[in-house]
Write a structure and sequence with these properties.
Blueprint: H1 11-25, H2 34-47, H3 53-61, H4 66-77, H5 88-97, E1 107-111, H6 118-130, E2 136-142, H7 145-153, E3 155-157, H8 166-172, E4 173-175, E5 183-186, H9 188-191, E6 194-198, E7 211-216, H10 225-236, E8 239-247, E9 263-266, E10 269-271
Helix pairs in contact: 1-3
């Protein structure tokens, strides 16, 4: 029988968590992520006074503690992000997509894996600067309730502001003073234009959109091929004809969709016919 010491997890229990996360979110947790899983879940074992990861697995998989199951998903799916990440996408939005928009109708964007909010607030700054004559709104979603709560607040440590151009930082971010020193708050004007909601990408999306642009960046690297196809197919039902679909710089839709569904315009940028 495999011995399990404090701060470690048996191969059998890791495999169980792998299967559970895949079932819930379509995310494959590679064996190299064992250390990450142990690091993120150990605090829950301590908080719940549980002796082993096996005990914690039985707790979350038993169906009687849905809130703890959500907490586990939150801990294992939270990813790093920052403002104006992969900035060429925002340049393309400003220079190529916005000039081609349909006049007289609202412009809508979906940030489908928004994490703690840096991507949708970056989009909000770009749209606020370039769509003075057009109504616009942003939908931002994530599977993690924890990061969505942080995103809704729009309150960040000042070091997170590094990617924001100084003029936009001054215009759209409020610098914290006194007990809030060392932080900044996204302006109410922008926060009011972003609607945050919980969405599991492997499930049928809610009745939102249709969208002119969907950003699905830096999340498909956690999916296998079948899950990627399912996720993209789900999102395409919410993309307007002629709409744009943008993935992360380390990702591709080759082998995931047919050109008749999404045509490659340039690497990582696609358009629905």
């Amino acid at each position: 029988m495999e011995q399990q010491t404090a701060g470690s997890i048996s191969d059998q229990d890791f495999t169980r968590f792998q299967a559970l996360l895949y079932k819930l979110a379509g995310i494959y947790l590679a064996p190299s992520k064992k250390v990450l899983l142990v690091g993120r879940l150990t605090k829950r074992l301590r908080a719940l006074n549980l002796a082993s990861f096996g005990d914690y697995y039985r707790l979350v998989a038993g169906g009687e503690h849905p809130q703890e199951l959500q907490t586990m998903v939150d801990l294992l799916t939270t990813n790093e992000t920052y403002f104006f990440r992969e900035s060429k996408h925002f340049d393309f939005l400003r220079q190529e997509i916005l000039p081609q928009r349909a006049r007289g109708t609202a412009f809508e964007v979906w940030s489908a894996a928004c994490s703690s909010g840096e991507e949708p607030y970056t989009l909000a700054m770009v749209l606020a600067e370039n769509l003075a004559d057009t109504p616009w709104k942003i939908t931002a979603s994530d599977i993690s309730t924890q990061v969505l709560e942080r995103a809704r607040r729009g309150h960040y440590p000042m070091e997170r502001s590094q990617g924001i151009p100084p003029a936009l930082l001054k215009k759209y971010c409020l610098k914290g003073v006194r007990e809030q020193a060392g932080t900044f708050l996204i302006s109410r004007e922008l926060r009011s234009r972003v609607n945050f909601l919980q969405v599991n990408l492997i499930e049928t999306p809610p009745s939102i959109g249709p969208f002119d642009v969907i950003f699905l960046r830096n999340v498909m690297i956690y999916f296998d091929q079948d899950t990627k196809r399912k996720v993209v197919a789900n999102l395409l039902t919410r993309l307007k004809p002629g709409g744009w679909f943008i993935v992360g710089h380390s990702e591709t839709l080759n082998g995931i969709v047919e050109p008749a569904q999404l045509a490659a315009v340039r690497p990582t940028i696609y358009r629905k016919p």
